[in-house]
Amino acid sequence: MAYEATALLIDDFDSRGPIARPTLHDAIVARVRDMIIEGELTPGARLHEGNLGKMLGVSRTPLREALKFLVSEGLLELSPGRGAVVRQFSAKDVHDSLIVLGNLEGLAGRLACEHATDAEIREVRQLHDRMMDMYEKRDRLPYFKLNQSIHSAILRLSKNEALVSVHNVLQARLKRIRYIGNEGPEKWAGAVADHEDMIGALEARDADRLSKILTTHMEKTWERVRNAI
Amino acid sequence: MAYEATALLIDDFDSRGPIARPTLHDAIVARVRDMIIEGELTPGARLHEGNLGKMLGVSRTPLREALKFLVSEGLLELSPGRGAVVRQFSAKDVHDSLIVLGNLEGLAGRLACEHATDAEIREVRQLHDRMMDMYEKRDRLPYFKLNQSIHSAILRLSKNEALVSVHNVLQARLKRIRYIGNEGPEKWAGAVADHEDMIGALEARDADRLSKILTTHMEKTWERVRNAI
DNA sequence: AAACAAAATACTGTATGCAGCATACTTGTG
DNA sequence: CACAAGTATGCTGCATACAGTATTTTGTTT
């Protein structure tokens, strides 16, 4: 019975790429991370090792290892003798993180203008166009996902691994909040306008302009999200 | 016998602060991190759980948890079935990290100009003056430590927790490199000049200037370190 | 009835044991 | 003598068992 659940976990994991096979550790980390992002585990909730382990079909040992991993990522907090708790982010925490994220994306944009190939920029343009389609249809979820893809793509095009990894950590902490904070129609239009500017600046390889747009875009994100906290 | 080593570990840990008592987990993490920074564990070295555990007087279970933590921090890499290895940083990795660090410190400087109190700036000035004393005496190690303290202080004065935490992660990855890369006299003078500018800009609360100095300072660090890799 | 103390329960932290896999060594063959 | 295959050793990955500590519940006293 326990093994059925384990099998499920591993099936969930993306098995493409012949280099590294999926490990149970990675599967648990990904699963718990999702549970936090999707709100199954709410901020402040205690993670009971016994129950959670049974739930996932895993013994406490690998589960605890995964929890330590998530503590290091900043998604959980650990009080000695009392186990792991889903981390609470105050409004200031979120604001602080968004400032840093804005700065990192600004840097990424600058580097992307320098290092991206024309073909890569065309790919981002395609993502953008598909996103605009979804906006026309007011289809929120695909829009949201494509939006995320575009930001990730710009990060990737910076060709700076350290930047990508740091950005991912911060991004993961806020994913839950952004998941909730779905903006109203008027602010949505503003975000779309930003994105039009973005792709334009990238295609023109105007590093200063792209950098500024990205940083400012993140400040606006704060305005959109601040009430949802 | 095993317990003697454990006790030692815990004694190493700073026990001030009545809130959180030192945990074995934190002690192991700190110890292994130090072993990497100080070169006791060289990049590419495999970490044998049995031996390392005996060495530290700890069983494999908490040791493995600590290793997972350090993997998440980016100091170790994990290949399934083959355990943990001290991560190798290529020259590009280091360069990329320094670019990001420079950007983060630039942001920190900008925020510090805004949020630091006069008293806090005076404290940085004192650190700076003491560092200059050490420079006069050509006393490298205290100079190095005070230098680090000043950069940390500026980060702290940004009053941005997310920024501090992200900076720490990246800083930890490079600590080993900086530990090696001790510059020659002519470049040392350049670094000192930068620091004079820094404290001046901070006291004047000139955010743009401080930000630029910090970012540029990091680019110069690359020049100093690049040959040592 | 309320508050405090004590005991029982339950959860975390650590050690150990076992199974599966990777690697190294040895032996046999071309 | 070299190379390949099979075997043996050793290490990682996971589960379970035990010890120590926090929490909750119950009983007693004011």
Automatic annotation (TrEMBL), chains A, B:
It comes from the Bacteria. One of its GO terms (molecular function) is DNA binding. InterPro entries: GntR_C, TF_FadR/GntR_C, Tscrpt_reg_HTH_GntR, WH-like_DNA-bd_sf, WH_DNA-bd_sf. Keywords: DNA-binding, Transcription, Transcription regulation. Residues 22-89 form the HTH gntR-type domain. Pfam families: FCD, GntR. Gene3D superfamilies: GntR ligand-binding domain-like, Winged helix-like DNA-binding domain superfamily/Winged helix DNA-binding domain. CDD domains: WHTH_GntR. This is GntR family transcriptional regulator. It comes from Microvirga aerilata.
